[in-house]
Amino acid sequence: MNRTFKGKSSLQRTSSVGKVGASGLLSLLLVPALLLSACGNSTDSPVANGQAAPAQTSTNDSVDALYAQAKQEGKVVVYSTSGRANDAAETFMKKYPGVKVEVSKVKSDQMMDKVTNEQDAGQFNPDVIITKEVSGAVGKEMVEQGRYVKYLPDDIAPTVDEPYRTQAPGYANYVEFRTIFYNTDHYKQIPVTNWWDLTTPAFKNKVYVADPLSSPAFMDLFTTMVIHSDDMAAAYKEKFGKDIDLQGEENAGYAFIHQLFANGLTVLKGSDDVLDAIGKTSSDAVGIAVSGDVSKVEEKGWHVQPIYDIKPKTSVPDAGYLYLAKQAPHEAAGKLFIRWMMGEEDGKGAGMEPFNEVGSWVPRSNVTTQNPVDFEKLNLWNFDADTLYMTSPKVRDFWIKQK
Fold first, then answer.
1. Residues 227, 305: contact at Cβ < 8 Å?
2. Residue among 140, 170, 136 at smallest CA distance from 31
3. Among 61, 309, 357, 396, which residue has the fewest nearby CB atoms (within 10 Å)?
4. Which residues are CB-contacts of 375 (< 8 A; sequence separation ≥ 6)?
């Protein structure tokens, strides 16, 4: 089946799973309460447009009380988009014997259908949800409908950066983004400073990207370029010294996508495939991949580095959210495991370690980043959940026509 998202313009886009149900369509009639972003709370920080955050569960539970109840529950069931949950589970079960962690790895959009179908059938299976956004659909179709519930303990909340403390629909345990990687054996200096560089003869047939039709987060990058077409037009003029000729395209964001394909863009299955293509041996090609994949460089034998500053903006934030599931059958164990992944009150707990890696940023004031640059200093667009949700279908259709 295919998930179909409908915007106010009646445009549709199809992702990899199930059709949006009545609750998804009903959510489009509601005033959204979303505000997603990265660290910081100034108007210049990468904060999404939105309104008040949804309600969350009781957050003043003590660790001892949770553990006592969790031992009676015996286990915690986790649906996760990230394999990092398994690493956190190992240390959790050593810290809290008697509570077993069961992790099922599921893609974000597939998880939405799975949870919706289960809950509609009266089956409340998972306790904890670890998910990325799906072009704003997770917030609209799952959080606003009460299927995913925010949980942020009172003792941890003061150290959490906005908007994840009070304004976002969920707590982001880590944030990453899509950016350009280059081969460090071939290039001794950063080869790209402007997104429009990729449309020049120097990079003809030398740009790789993971398929945005399979990964909503990659599509979010290109959709954000369309949303911020004025920025793309300004970057074009800075690069080429003249105003952009749209050549019939609606705006500079669409023109960039078109020119990227016209210059021989190669679309591969996933981020690892991109970095394999450019990083196994010396290569003058570049690739658009996940910032977090820089942590795999030694393991995979890649000779690559990400670029952290590209004009007009480097990228758009992609957060990994932690939620409790609606009517979690092992609620205390779920809360205890979420606390563990957050690193507990001081941010130093072992459960945080799999998430606080090079290429990923933790939005907490008492957690030191492993990266060479602080997240709030990155040159990122806002994650505008509402506009992404409404615009993605059209950009997806445009992308398909370029192939």
1. no
2. 140
3. 309
4. 38, 39, 40, 175, 361, 363, 369
Q: Using pLDDT thresholds of 50, 70 and 90, give the confidence band for residue 168.
A: confident
CA distance 379 to 265: 24
Distances, alpha carbon 230 to alpha carbons 178, 191, 244, in Å: 20, 24, 11
| Strands (E) located in 37-92 | 75-80
Q: Which residues pair with 380 in a beta bridge?
A: 315
* Spatial contact of 361 and 174, defined as CB atoms under 8 Å apart: yes
Specify the amino acid at residue 25: L
Residue reference for tokens 């939005």: 363
The predicted pLDDT at position 22 comes to 36
Which amino acid belongs to residue 86?
N
Backbone angle region of 146, left / alpha / beta, with phi > 0 → left and psi within -120 to 50 → alpha? left
At 318-353, the pLDDT tens digits run 999 999 999 999 999 999 999 999 999 999 999 999
Judged by DSSP in three states, 103 sits in strand
Q: Let me know if 345 is exposed, middle or buried by CB neighbors in 10 A (0-12, 13-18, 19+).
A: middle
Does the N-terminal peptide bond of residue 163 adopt cis geometry, omega within 30 degrees of 0?
A: yes
**Token pair in block for residue 385:** 């959940």
